[in-house]
Specification:
mainly alpha
Length: about 375
């Protein structure tokens, strides 16, 4: 009698192949997501800005709700107040900014003249080296058409680029439309209340997942709100100190230097670098004394170092302590994906992702890397 043998199961795939396949899928998902964020930045950036502002102003609307003011009216009051603040800041800075833009070309020309004086010895050395090189190579042959007295061929004129006014108009139009889009989205989010959060929690099947999602949303909103408020307060204080120091050093437009500090310090590390470079160029164009030239960027470097190492760690607290390396990498990544808006949004996005990673078992190593 022939006994049928049981079919042998197929050999299991080696664990190494499974790990490589998982890594490949993760990398593929990362690059696909990055490509989508890069090419869809005009769609995603206003939405993310509106979500961050919603986290910032949601407590204000809740206070109005306790005072029996409808949510839609409270959202409208917040948006109108924000628009009023933007318009008032624009009018307050219009005069100093216009004067600075009018004087900037002259100051840059003065800096260029000073640099030409410094470059003259280097150019002389370069000319001497070039003459020695030509002498070592021997006499050069003259082209036939030049020897025959043919007129030289005129160079092809370079294509003229668009005027500065047209590019500025295009940039201003895009900026204005982006601001309108963000304010409209902000009003819709504020007027909707907690509807989206409740719907998100409602569609989650397991009760434990519902609780985790609610904790993630609450912590994310709290961390983002605290980060924005603390950062704005720190930057305003630093801007006041920088403006007073620049006024004491007789730097032109000290009010604008304080305003630039408040805005650029929202970008970790890169903002301070840009400020030091700008102050060095303007001081070089304005003053002749080397000590006076170094005083402006040097004083800013001292102020921002004290702020980063003394003031910020105390005011941010434990919840906002992120790994400086991960913050810098995140800022560069979001700068590449979304440009300047991405650099502004980098830290809130990283902080939110860290909270999510801390509540998801598979992402806990990422959360550990992002924290201090």
């Amino acid at each position: 009698m022939i006994v049928a043998s049981e079919p042998t199961p197929p050999p299991a795939a080696p664990a190494e192949n499974h790990g490589l396949r998982t890594t490949a899928m993760v990398l593929l998902a990362f690059f696909v997501t990055a490509a989508g964020l890069y090419f869809g930045r005009e769609f995603f950036v206003p939405i993310v800005f509106a979500i961050l502002l919603n986290a910032l102003f949601r407590p204000v609307v809740r206070l109005m709700e306790r005072a029996h003011i409808p949510t839609a009216i409270g959202g409208a009051i917040v948006v109108l107040g924000l628009m009023t603040a933007i318009v008032a800041a624009g009018f307050a800075l219009a005069g100093p900014l216009q004067r600075w833009m009018h004087e900037a070309p002259e100051r840059f020309r003065a800096a260029e003249k000073k640099l030409d004086k410094l470059r003259q010895p280097v150019q002389q050395v370069s000319q001497v080296a070039s003459q020695i090189e030509h002498a070592a190579q021997g006499p050069t042959t003259v082209p036939a058409d030049a020897a025959a007295g043919a007129p030289p061929v005129a160079p092809v004129p370079a294509p003229q680029s668009r005027g500065l006014a047209a590019r500025f108009l295009d940039g201003s139009t895009k900026l204005l439309s982006a601001i309108v889009e963000v304010l409209l989205l902000l009003y819709l989010l504020l007027a909707a209340g907690d509807m989206f959060v409740k719907k998100l929690i409602k569609i989650i099947p397991l009760w434990s997942d519902k609780q985790a999602a609610e904790q993630v949303v609450d912590q994310s909103q709290g961390v983002v709100m605290r980060y924005l408020l603390v950062t704005l307060a720190i930057n305003i204080g630093q801007g006041i100190v920088v403006g007073l120091v620049m006024w004491w050093l007789k730097m032109p437009s000290p009010l604008l230097w304080g305003f630039f500090t408040v805005i650029l310090e929202l970008i970790p590390y890169l903002g301070a670098t840009v400020m030091v470079a700008l102050l060095a160029v303007i001081a070089f164009a304005t003053f002749d004394d080397i000590g006076h030239i170094l005083a402006a960027p040097g004083s800013y470097l001292i102020i921002t170092t004290i702020q980063n190492n003394v003031v910020s760690p105390v005011l941010y607290g434990q919840h906002l302590k992120l790994n400086p390396v991960s913050v810098l990498i995140g800022v560069l990544l979001w700068w590449f994906l979304w440009g300047i808006p991405g650099a502004f949004l980098a830290v809130p996005i990283i902080a939110t992702f860290k909270i999510i990673a801390d509540h998801v078992d598979t992402l806990k190593p990422v959360g550990e890397f992002l924290g201090e």
